[in-house]
Task: inverse folding
């Protein structure tokens, strides 16, 4: 699938004008389901840590897991619900008014791509903060629990957003060729 996106950014390979739109938004929707799954697992782990954990570390992990899972569920759910509408909007515009795609979808995607750079730096900072908290926190402390959750969760977000950014860059390159 990733190779298809790399190919999309350089050529159309006989695709209809609608196919790249379907590919992009379909992949966004699929990744949003992964985000939702990770968020649900995070909520279950948070509940288990809270219920069974007797240390500050377990309670800190539970709170961090719950907050990060809520973010993942919110983002994943928003993309999952929004993607079909965006796909329909862009597909319809491509069939009736390509200029509308240039004036609306291109600026939207440029903003999305700028936001990915911000997300990347925030996620990298969260990885380092999580590592610092996990290593510097006292054994059994809430600080250490938060760090032990923040580190892997920030890495997951970094990977998912990196994949989404690569898809977005290919889609943007395709849009710019219209």
Result:
């Amino acid at each position: 699938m990733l190779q298809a996106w790399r190919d999309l950014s350089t050529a159309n390979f006989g695709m209809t004008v609608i196919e790249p739109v379907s590919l992009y938004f379909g992949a966004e929707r699929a990744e949003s389901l992964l985000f939702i799954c990770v968020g649900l697992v995070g909520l279950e782990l948070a509940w288990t840590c809270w219920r069974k954990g007797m240390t500050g570390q377990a309670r800190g992990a539970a709170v961090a897991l719950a907050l990060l899972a809520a973010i993942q569920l919110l983002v994943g759910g928003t993309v999952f619900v929004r993607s079909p509408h965006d796909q329909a909007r862009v597909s319809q515009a491509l069939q009736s008014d390509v200029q509308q795609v240039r004036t609306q979808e291109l600026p939207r995607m440029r903003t999305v791509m700028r936001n990915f750079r911000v997300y990347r730096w925030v996620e990298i900072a969260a990885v380092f903060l999580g590592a610092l908290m996990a290593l510097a926190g006292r054994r059994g402390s809430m600080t250490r629990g938060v760090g032990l959750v923040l580190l892997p969760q920030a890495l997951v977000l970094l990977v998912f957003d990196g994949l989404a950014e690569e898809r977005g860059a290919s889609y943007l390159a395709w849009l710019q060729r219209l």
User: Anything to note?
Assistant: Residues 16-176 form one domain. The chain has a mean pLDDT of 92. The longest helix spans residues 56-96.
